[in-house]
Amino acid sequence: AVPRPATSASVGVMALRAADIVVPTEIWRAWRAWWLGDAIGALVVAPLILGWALLDARDLVSRMKEGLVLLATLAVVSAIVFFAGTPARGVSFLQAYLVFPLLIWSAVRFTLRGTATAVLLTCVVAVIGTARGSGPFVQAGLHESLFSVQSFMGIVAVSFLILASAVAERERAMAVASRALLVAAEANRAKSDFLASMSHELRTPLNAIAGYAQLLGMNVHGPLGPAQREALARIEANQRHLASLVDDVLSFTGVGAGRLSVRPRGLQAGEA
C-alpha cells in the first residue's frame, strides 16, 4: 500500500507540473493528496472485493437482517456526524468517534466482509460531507480539509480491518479446534470399542482354560501327582490374574463411555 500509490502520485504530479496545472509551491500537497487517495482506495476497495468474492450465501442469509440494521444505523450516524455542520473547535474528533462503536460491531459480527462494507460507507459519507463544507474535518483550506478526512479514512480502514482480521482468525482457530476435538472424540470411541471387543474375545479362551483346569483338578482325566497339581495351581492363578486384567480393561472402557462412574472414598481402617 506504499510503493504503488507513491509511484502513481509521483507520475501524476509530475504530469500536472509539466502542464503547469500545479505550481511548485503546491507540489508536496498535491503529491500527498494523490498518494493518500490511492493508498486509502487500496485499503478500502481491495478488502471489499476480496470479502464479497468469497461470499457464502448461507452466511449472508443467516445475518441479513442484522447486517441491514447495522448499515442503516451506520448511515444515519455518519450523516449526523458529517452533515450536521462544523462542530466547535476541540469537539471535531470527538464527534467523529460516534461511528466507532458501529464499526466495532461490524468487525466482531461480520468480520472482513462486513467491516470493509461499513468502512466504505463511512468513508463515502465523510468525503461527501467534507466536500460540502460540513463535518468535523472541514478546515480553512481545501488541502487541509482533504488531508484531515483522508487521515481519518486511513485510521478507520487500518484499525477496523485489523480488528476484523483478528476476529476472523480467532473464528478459524476455534473451528479448527472444534474439528480436532471431534476427531479426537471419534478416535477415543474407536479405541474404547476396540478394547471392549478385545476384552470380550479374551474372556472366551480364559473361560476355557478355567474350565479345563477345573476338570483336571477334579481328576476327570486321571489322578494328578504333586508336581502336576503345583503346575495346575500356577495355571489357575495366572488365569485369574489375566481375567482380573480383562475386567479392569472393561471397567476402563465403561468409564470412558460414560456407562460407569468413579467415586473417591476414604481408606478404611486396616487398608492403608
Can you put this structure into words, describing what you see?
The chain has 272 residues and is mainly alpha-helical. The chain contains eight helices and no strands. Helix 2 (27-53) crosses helix 6 (100-131) and helix 4 packs across helix 6 (100-131). The two termini are 73 Å apart.
Defining traits:
mainly alpha, 8 helices, 79% helix, 272 residues, rod-shaped
Instruction: Please tell me what the overall shape is.
Output: rod-shaped
Helix amount: over 70%
Largest beta-sheet details? none
Helical run tally: 8
Helix-strand topology string? HHHHHHHH
Would you tell me the structural class of the helices and strands?
Answer: mainly alpha
The amount of beta strand, in percent, is: under 5%
Radius of gyration: 38 Å
pLDDT averaged residue by residue: 77
Task: Give the CA-CA distance, first to last residue.
Answer: 73 Å
Number of strands: 0
**pLDDT below 50 for ≥5 consecutive residues: which ranges?**
none
Question: How is the topology of this model organized?
Answer:
Elements: H1 3-18, H2 27-53, H3 57-62, H4 64-83, H5 92-96, H6 100-131, H7 142-217, H8 226-257
Helix pairs in contact: 1-2, 2-6, 2-7, 4-6, 6-7, 7-8
In short:
The protein is mainly alpha-helical.
